[in-house]
Structure prediction request, 306 residues.
Amino acid sequence: MTNDNFLPAKTQQLTESTSIALTRAIARHNLLTPLTPQPIATTYIQQGQGGTPILLFHGFDSSLLEFRRLFPLLAEHKETWAVDLLGFGFTERVSGIKFSASAIATHLYYFWKTLIQVPVILVGASMGGAAAIDFTLTYPQAVKKLVLLDSAGFTSPPPIGKFLFPPFDNWAVEFLRRPKVRETISKNAYFDPTFVSADALLCAALHLEMPGWHRALISFTKNGGYPPFGQKLSQIQQQTLILWGKDDRILGTKYAHKFEAVIPNSQLIWIDDCGHVPHLEKPEITAEYIQQFSDCRDAWNISTIL
Prediction:
């Protein structure tokens, strides 16, 4: 084990510099929340200084390692944070917790309240976008601006949860653990499949070694994940930047337009030659858009800046 014995031993097999650097920066905080009497050991990264803090939320069955290419670019200019969502990544999966969207929001609020304490520019990728929307609607005082990267939140998750009863629940998550299955999912997430290196596959699978991975994933899925927000999106008052890969094969592209149409103060920017993960496939331009957006005031049009 590495990093004070909370990261899996396989972490030592990483080869790419951004992956190695980010794992070395991961910290753990014993976070007190109303969810359980005991603290939740919550993993996060914080680097950089200046400006409104940026806070990053990762996607489904993932970890903060998916920001390994974007994070250092943002931290060069701004105070930047990334956190592992409750039930995911390397954050402790405490027994007795009902892993749900509501529990994730509560956990994130106490993380923000304990460690950050000022309004942030919130960035959510894929399911992390749904988490960011939910957090913004529930705790608007904590969010100054919102960035959605190929975000979930417009459609219901598959109704698989109601079918996850023993022994099929364990079989389902074990199927998701299979290296070939994860490799296929990863390749579909990129426009350029050559990004799916051995290091990338390892980054995407390290959190599977954490205690309670099965239980938390089954619990979250059975509890319905993130339902569609629908017209609640019109309640978002914060300026919102929607960044979307033009070649997203996971969510497609139609939801990008729908987000822009429903969120009042929003702007959609397309990223060329990019799939579902612009923070991994096009980190430089993604970082530049986020940095420019963070500096914009009331009137803004980022397409005229870049």
The first strand starts at residue 27 and ends at 33. Confidence is low (pLDDT under 50) at residues 159-168. The two ends are 43 Å apart (CA to CA). The CA atoms of residues 70 and 267 lie 21 Å apart.
